[in-house]
Write a structure and sequence with these properties.
The chain is mostly beta strands. It is built from no helices and seven strands. It has one domain: Immunoglobulin-like, CATH 2.60.40.10. About 0% of the residues lie in helices and about 50% in strands. The strands form two sheets. It has a four-stranded antiparallel sheet with strand order 4-3-6-7, with no helix packed on it. The chain has a three-stranded antiparallel sheet with strand order 1-2-5, with no helix packed on it.
């Protein structure tokens, strides 16, 4: 399984800014290795963000997203102490889910 995501969520006024750094190779399927063989595609397809168990953001990604992707978004109504959960699924079926507390 991949390394944990680095999630930061900070309240400013009536919304929280969430920043996520995901650890993933994100191969496009178009590069070749040293022997000239194509490296198979391997990338995050679906990303979901939840605030206290309620889905607040979903995204569908493709192979053109960079290695170790960074995601930033805002959530209205979040307050200090709330839980933000970020989950992803890649094209090989691997999954990752991590949680952070809004500060």
């Amino acid at each position: 399984m991949s390394d944990p995501m680095r999630i930061r969520a900070q309240v400013a006024g009536d919304k929280a800014t969430v920043r996520v750094l995901m650890s993933h190779e994100m191969e496009t399927g178009q590069r070749k290795d040293g022997a000239g063989k194509v490296i198979p595609a391997w990338y995050i397809q679906d990303v979901t963000a939840q605030l206290n168990g309620k889905t607040v953001m979903t995204a569908q990604w493709g192979p053109s997203v960079a290695k170790n992707p960074f995601l930033q978004f805002s959530v209205k109504g979040a307050k200090a102490g709330d839980k933000i959960t970020i989950s992803w699924i890649d094209n090989k079926g691997d999954k990752r889910s991590d949680e952070a507390t809004v500060s």
